[in-house]
Every structure is written in C-alpha cells, then in structure tokens.
Amino acid sequence: SMEAKAAGAQRLLRLCTEVGPLEEISEHQTLLGVISRELRENAKRSHELAVAITGIFLCLAHFSQFHGALGRHQAGEATMRVVEFEGKRAKALQKELKLTQSRLGTRGSEVTKEDKLNLQREERRYQAVLERQ
User: Fold this and answer.
1) How many domains does the chain have?
2) Cα dihedral 5/11/16/22 (nearest 10)
3) For the segment 115-127, what is each residue's pLDDT rounded down to a tens digit?
4) Considering 56, 78, 100, which residue would you say is the last residue of a domain?
C-alpha cells in the first residue's frame, strides 16, 4: 500500500540523517533504483512518499562521492519533476481560489452560506498545500 511505502521511505530517511549508513545505501543499486522509480511513479499519489524520497536524495547529495550513484538512477530528474508538479499544483489551486473569490465578490448579497463554506474549504485546502510544500 502507499502508506506502507511512505512509512518505509520515512524510516530510510531517518537512517540517512546519520552519515554512517550513507555509503552503504549509495552502494545498494537495487534500493536506489526502487526508490527512484517509486518517486517517478508515485509522487503524485503520495506527498509523504515524495517528501521522504526527495529527503533521502538530498541527504546523499550533500556528499560529492554519492553524486554518481544519484545520477545513474536519475534522482535529480525525478526530484525536479516533483518540484515542478508541486509548483503547478499550487498555482492551479491559487487560480481556482482567486476565481471563486471573484465570483463571490461579483454576486454581492446573493452569496449563500454554502458558497461561503465552499470558499473557506478551498482556502484551507490551498493553505494545506502551501504548508506541505
């Protein structure tokens, strides 16, 4: 399940915050291949998984001796795709929110309680996306 994958990636990220296991992790070609593929295929489905895997890659990227391993598994490309996707998602939500706000503004006193609740829901959703990024 996606939750199990995210939990596993988060555990691996905790290991990567220590310098000791980084070399062994960087030499484990299967592991790097799997997490890189998971990032490419599932980043849009699970924000937690994407954050954990990009965190793993970030920990490895701090040391130049691991850059080759990251490059072989296209970690940089996969990470940039996640960053681009999250940016586009935030822009789309912001545009949707502004459109809703302007629609309600033009309706003036005709705005219903349900309209106001929908706007508040969209605002909370937008804030949640910004906070996660």
Assistant:
1) 2
2) -70
3) 778 778 888 887 7
4) 78
